[in-house]
Each structure stands twice: as structure tokens, then as C-alpha cells.
Amino acid sequence: xxxxxxxxRIAALHGTAWExxxxxxxxxxxxxxxxxxxxxxxxxxxxxxxxLEAVPVLILASLDxxxxxxxxxxxxxxxxxxAA
Length: 84
What we know:
Blueprint: H1 4-28, H2 38-51
Helix pairs in contact: 1-2
């Protein structure tokens, strides 16, 4: 995706999601947070979330849940996240 306005919108959504997820990530990662590579990784995640709008191109991957058959319910919601 090269469109600057779309990239900016996605960056804003991603930044909001990261700010909301950060406290949960800290708790969820308690078992790995003391590894030597954890702090640098989290700094990089934060750096990306704060500067995503500046990248020249975004490559987006998506999942069409309608193609997952028994892994989704009638509304397309994943009922088996690990399998998906």
C-alpha cells in the first residue's frame, strides 16, 4: 500500500491498538520478559508503532475467514484460533 492517507489511517489504528495492548503484553509476557532479547524487541515494537506512518510502503496480509470452513461460525468469527 503506497497511498499516504491510507497508511496514515492504518498507522493511527495500529498506534491506538498498541497503546491499549501494551499493559496486557507486559503481563502476558511475564515468563519471557527477563530474556536478554525481550527489552530490545519491545523497544522495536514501540518504535514501529510510533513511526509506522513514515514507512514508504505497507504490505498487508489478511485472512478471509469465510474460507476456513469448520474453524469459523456462521458469522465468520474464528472458533478455533489455534487451528486458524
